[in-house]
Structures are given as structure tokens and as C-alpha cells.
Design a protein that fits this description.
- This protein is 40% helix and 17% strand.
- The longest helix has 20 residues, at 223-242.
- It is α+β, with helices and mostly antiparallel strands and 311 residues long.
- The strands form 3 sheets. The protein has a 4-stranded mixed sheet, covered by helices on one side.
- The model has no long low-confidence stretch (mean pLDDT 86).
- It folds into 2 domains: 2-100 and 107-265, 2-Layer Sandwich (Chloramphenicol Acetyltransferase), CATH 3.30.559; 279-308, no CATH class.
- The N and C termini lie far apart (94 Å).
- The protein has helices spanning 2-17, 50-63, 67-83, 125-140, 147-154, 177-181, 223-242, 256-265, 279-289, 302-308; strands at residues 41-47, 87-94, 111-118, 168-174, 199-206, 209-217, 294-296, 300-301.
Length: 311
């Protein structure tokens, strides 16, 4: 009876969180979305530099924020930039061991929580991280309500090519070094060839450092795109670690290669023009060389354009 009352109470919590529905994430893909869910996937892993990890841990300690909140906030900022929207829906897994009787029980109890956070580019990043921390704690306090029941309660009008409610997941894992150091457990790297969501960003923290990885659907994204997303995320968290009070719009996601591409290569529009002539004389030369070719999409030829030009 107590469990039934708890689930009913938590149902109302989630109903109040999503009075209408979960907003969609309008993230562009490299390929058209298949009409049916294609689980084919791959994973790319990237180690964060030691100085970035140390700065993030110090920021976490100084501000009283979990690394989960900081890294999720950074992920939300990245998604907001990529999707050009401020309401960011992300799923996150929880242990599901909300009852004391489950703490020492062997088994799989994982549940999925849906978090929707608002990324205001004018706000300081630290404010967003604090807000996400508070909202995540509220969601954790209501984690007994099953994700499947949430899907049934809210419904999902999207077609079968999407996962229910959300397309992107964030997960943070902390290795328990006590068991690894005692020789009881050791990490094993597994090559995944499937993906449960369009994108899953995983942050793995251990005594030795921190790695980030993205599991992605190969039916939607090229590897080069995901490589760039990981590099942008790594650049963003490095900036956040040193400038947590900067406005979100001032934080950088561009790597040095991206910045050089945008500011130099794509901006290399200089062209050599003869110093001894004028623009209208150059126009006349082109008209004389190709009098019957289309001059522009107004379907006017160079000959007719020349006749209409002033002497």
C-alpha cells in the first residue's frame, strides 16, 4: 500500500513537470532519419587533459556542485548551440535502488529519468549548473516512477524512428577504486556496435582521470561529426573550468582547428583586381566576351544588360 501511494505521488510530480509533453530536440543529422528505429551504432572515446580534470574537480569542490551537474550543464549548453534552441530534453539513467531493501539486492533496477533544462545564453554558466543540480535532485527523489509509465502517461506522437520521449542521453559513471585496487574488479573496454539513443554522452571518472565518449547511431551521423562534437565538448568544459561565471554565450566550443577554418580559411575571400580599371569597365569586358550568356537569374543576357547600362 505504501509503495502504491508513493508511485501515485510521484506520478503527480512528473505530470507537473510535463503538463503538455516533452519538447523535442531539433538536432540536425547527417542522414535522413529512417522510418523505423535502426539500432546500429558506434562509440568514440576521448580522454580529457589532466589539467582540465583537476580544474573541474576544484570547481566542483569550491561551488558545492557535483561533477554530474557540471558536466550535464555543459552538455546542455553544447546541445543548445547545436540545435539553436533553449529547452533541452535529455535522459539520464539512475540506479533504481530507491528503497533500502534494494541496496544489497543483486539485480538490475536501472530506471531512466527525463530532464528538461532551459539554457539562457545571457546567464552565467554557474547559475545554470546550480539550477540543474537542484532539478536533478528533485527528479532523483521521484525516481521510483518507471520510465515506461511516464511514456504511457504522456504519450509520444513522434514516429517509430525515434526513441520514446527523448533522443539523447547523458550518463556519468564513477569507478569504485576500492574494488579495483583490491584486485576484485578491473575495467573492461567493450566495442559497441549498437546505440540505444541517437546520441549518448558518457563521462567516466576514476582516480586516474576522466574520459568522455559518445555512443551514436551510424544511420544518422558520420564519425567525423561525432569527432567534432566530442572536441567541442572537451573545449567547452575546459573553458567552463576556468570561467564558470562567464555568460553562456561567451563560452567557446570552437577548437583551434575550427577557429582557423572559420576565421581564416572560410574568410579568405580576397581577390586580385586590376588597379588601372574601374568596376563598370570590368563589367563591359565580361559583356563583350560573353554577350549572350545569362548575366544573372533575372533571365537577362549580358547584351541586354549592357544596352541598359549608362554610358
Amino acid at each position: 500500500m505504501q509503495a502504491t501511494a508513493l508511485i501515485a505521488k510521484q506520478r503527480e510530480f512528473w505530470r507537473s513537470r510535463f503538463p503538455d509533453d516533452v519538447p523535442g530536440l531539433l538536432l540536425l543529422t547527417d542522414f535522413a532519419r529512417p522510418p523505423n528505429l535502426d539500432p546500429s551504432g558506434a562509440t568514440i572515446i576521448h580522454d580529457l587533459p589532466a589539467d582540465t580534470v583537476a580544474a573541474l574537480r576544484e570547481l566542483s569542490r569550491a561551488r558545492g556542485l557535483s561533477l554530474h551537474a557540471l558536466m550535464l550543464a555543459a552538455f546542455d549548453v553544447l546541445l543548445a548551440r547545436l540545435a539553436r534552441q533553449d529547452e533541452i530534453p535529455v535522459a539520464t539513467p539512475v540506479s533504481g535502488r530507491w528503497h533500502p531493501d534494494m541496496q544489497r539486492t543483486v539485480g538490475m533496477f536501472v530506471n531512466t529519468l527525463v530532464l528538461v533544462n532551459t539554457v539562457d545564453p545571457k546567464r552565467p554558466f554557474a547559475e545554470l549548473a546550480s539550477e540543474i543540480s537542484a532539478r536533478t535532485i528533485e527528479a532523483l527523489d521521484n525516481q521510483a516512477f518507471p520510465f515506461t509509465d511516464l511514456v504511457e502517461m504522456l504519450g509520444d506522437p513522434r514516429h517509430a524512428g525515434h526513441t520514446p520521449l527523448v533522443d539523447v542521453m547523458f550518463a556519468m559513471q564513477n569507478a569504485d577504486d576500492r574494488f579495483e585496487g583490491a584486485g576484485l574488479l578491473a575495467p573492461v573496454s567493450v566495442e559497441a556496435d549498437s546505440s540505444k539513443f541517437d546520441l549518448t554522452l558518457a563521462v567516466d571518472e576514476s582516480r586516474d582521470g576522466m574520459s568522455i565518449s559518445i555512443e551514436y547511431r551510424t544511420s544518422l551521423y558520420k564519425r567525423s561529426t561525432i569527432d567534432r562534437y566530442l572536441a567541442c565538448y572537451a573545449r567547452l568544459v575546459a573553458d567552463v573550468a576556468t570561467r564558470p561565471d562567464a555568460a553562456i554565450e561567451q563560452l567557446s566550443i570552437l577548437t583551434e582547428d575550427d577557429r582557423r577554418l572559420v576565421q581564416i580559411e572560410w574568410n579568405a575571400t580576397d581577390a586580385a583586381f586590376p588597379a588601372e580599371t574601374t568596376a563598370h569597365r570590368m563589367f563591359e569586358r565580361v559583356a563583350a566576351r560573353s554577350p549572350d550568356r545569362s548575366a544573372w537569374r533575372a533571365t537577362r543576357s549580358w547584351r541586354s544588360s549592357r544596352r541598359r547600362a549608362p554610358s
